[in-house]
Amino acid sequence: MTESEHIRTTDNNNGSLTANPEWIPSLQKIADIPLSNLIAGNPSLLVFPATIDKSEDGVGSLPVFSLHLGRRPAIVTGNILGFIGIDSLQLSVRSRFGKDDAGDYFLYHMLRKVFFPNVVDLQHNSRHDSALDILPFLFPRLLHEALRQGLYKEYTVSQYNDSRVRGKIDVSRHLRCNLPFVGNVAYTVREFSYDNDITQLVRHTIEYIRRLPYGQNILYSDCTTKQDVDTIVNVTPSYRKTDIRNVIERNAVPLAHPYFSAYKVLQRLCLMILKGQQMRNGDADKVYGILFDGAWLWEEYVYTLIGNFGYTHPRNKVDTGRIWLFKENRYPRYPDFIKDKIILDAKYKRIAAHSISRDDLHQLISYMHITCSDKGALVNPVGSPESKTSIINIGSLNGHGGEIAILSLKIPCGADNFEEFEDLIADEEKKFREMVDIFESHGSSAAD
Fold first, then answer.
1. Is 261 exposed, middle or buried (0-12, 13-18, 19+ CB in 10 A)?
2. What's the number of CA atoms in the CB half-sphere (13 Å) around residue 225?
3. 90: which of 76, 85, 97, 261 fits an S-S bond (Cβ 3.0–4.6 Å)?
């Protein structure tokens, strides 16, 4: 295998990528392994959503890809997007809507809308896959999610030398510092402190990002991020730039605190940002990279389009917005989007009106029945040249009734650069919101 070989493919590639025999020994180390297992053993692998173990879709049991051996060994991908490295091999799984000779504009657009909507001058380099370059842009959101759980604190041992003894007397230090005796006593106290290894790691990451050419844009793009950054700076008075190596080493063991769960993800991100060059050189942990569940990312992206129009977005990882299948509050379920008597279910897959998956259709009907909704739609992206942003009428249900449709968002595929793509998809997003309004008002009959 050549040094630092970079393989590119797309999500849901149906086995179109032939595996070079030289790749196979490295690929076998990560192929067909559930995401949850890969994350557990590789601290330099970051996966979104962070709580894949709570996903209704069972994302944690999915592999990044499958490796089919035979006369023509093939790499078969599913809904997992992003970048993963093993040994000197680097695999990029791009959006299926990207051009072969350009950057993955749609993936970066979704990431921008979901993670850093206030960053206005994201530079997307189409000449190479720069998944690691995106890491600093994820920092504000993960920092905010962590601080929503409160400032991380842990027990630290502090040394004092005063007359207010409130801990264990340090005899040797007392004799060294307080002779002749003038009233002070040297002692140590085990106490909670906000200035600890975790917050120091976050502070070093802040200072690293601050020095980047676009760092100010990331850290001060909005009032919330600025406030979060100031909070960490204020509680880490012992910060020293030269301590960075020791701080990284002291964070080698992943945080296992049951309450501050969001800090575990933030800790992993900070380490990846600070060790970024090591990962580029392929000499960091055995497996490294950043991956996204395409279905989850698509769902979060759709919410950025309709969230301001009255739709709620139930989330099972934080246990909000659930519905119950039974009156005794048993079997909770989390529809993607609910508004009055309308259910929208995001699907990052190809959907044809004549061949909707049984599971997808039955799930939508169940949600409509339980919530007494009279309209339901599957929401998916389309990207073929002849496709368009549209409503497709599926029909009216028997029994309690209700109309079902497919709402499709056209993903532009002819852009020559990221800025052009942003302009094109902005037009499609506007059309999509108009289609949602029409569906709310007229149901699936609007497609006739």
1. middle
2. 23
3. 85
